[in-house]
Amino acid sequence: MLAISCVPISMTSHQPIASSVATRQQSAERSTLVSAGVNCVLSVGQIAAGLWSHSQGLVADGLHTLSDLIADGIVFIANRNSHKGPDEDHQYGHARYENAASLGLGLLLIGAGAGMIWAAVESLRSPQGPTPVHGLALVVALIALVAKEGLFRYMLAVAKRIGSRMLIANAWHARSDAISSLVAAVGVAGNLMGYHWLDPVAACVVGAMIGRVGLRFGWEALNDLMDRALPPSQVQAIRASLAGTPGVISVHDLRTRVTGDQALVDAHIEVDPRVSVSEGHAIAVRARTNALAAHTAMAVLDVQIHVDPSERIATDPLPLPDRDALVAVLTPLLPTGTPLDARHCVLHYVDGVVEMDLIVPAALAAEPARITDAIHAKWNGLVRVRVLASRA
To answer: Which CATH class is domain 232-309?
Structure first.
């Protein structure tokens, strides 16, 4: 029996990625809770010591630490929700909770930085000038510096191990907080040496650093929410995996989009136009499986495959006749009850024409002119007919 031409199909079933979602979630939650505990202790100590010692820089750094604590809460909630599976309202899953949380974190940092700069500038403009600070402020600033640098190194190691962009962003937030503690310590030390203006200047620098980090994180998250593609090198690697699948002639219209820490892939593959629908489907399944297995490192969540016959421009079925139109012409020419299903009337849309293999009883196949003439009269040059004798 001759093969049936392959029509476009799409593979939309979901398959979990190789990395353990449960392990990633547990690691993320553990590191977030550690960060929250450290930031809670530090923020209370910094703000209290800053107010008591009259250090504007230390208070600003304490507020920065408090923003870390709020960020940890956002990350914790987002991590819990981003790993939920698809539901009726979110049929592609909830991975973009992470992108939304990163955007919220960025906006929070921008606002906190702007507020710190405003307060410091007001202090510098005050007629009384900046206030001298107490030595306790320097001790607390140095303790905070050591604690935040250690927290950064711990969180970044966890984030890289599980491949979480949101946790990497939160880790670098901790590093920015460590740097801000260093600036605050320098400002306090300068104030103690008699340069009272250094403390509010340090607060301004801290505010600018916080705003810059927030702007970067917010912009990255906004790009991801706008369906930013994977880097070109990763796209080419996915293309190579699809093209290397047996039966795939070429790959085109390959698109990717980031969702949370994962990526969704859409691609068209071209196959021989004369393979059956089921074989084209099997080729698509193998191509999708190959791509998912080969790219677990970049966390490819799903690959949607659309199957096209090769020479797809020449095989555009419009304005060629469809099966119903062909059967309508054939039915009056054949004895009543002659089967014209897909097994007996095989169509291939290739080279700008319809190639039709009509399989009929031997007696009818012996005199094909009546059939071929009728088809040619209706669609001259658009339909090629071969009348074949059935083996039955």
So the answer is: alpha beta
How many CB atoms are located within 10 Å of the residue 108 CB?
20
Q: What is the pLDDT of residue 9?
A: 39
Look up tokens 């593979």; give the residue. Answer: 11
Q: What is the mean pLDDT of the chain?
A: 78
pLDDT digits (tens, 9 = 90+) for 325-345: 888 988 888 888 888 888 888
DSSP letter, residue 127:
T
Question: What separation in angstroms does the CA of 308 have from each of 10, 276, 291?
Answer: 10, 12, 18
- Fold annotation for 323-389: Alpha-Beta Plaits (3.30.70)
Q: Measuring CA to CA, which residue among 312, 6, 28 is closest to residue 168?
A: 28
- Every domain of the chain with CATH number 3.30.70.1350 lies at 232-309
What pLDDT is stored for residue 265 in this prediction?
92
Q: Which CATH code fits 21-225?
A: 1.20.1510.10
Q: Are 321 and 379 in contact (CB under 8 A)?
A: yes
Residue 83 DSSP label: T
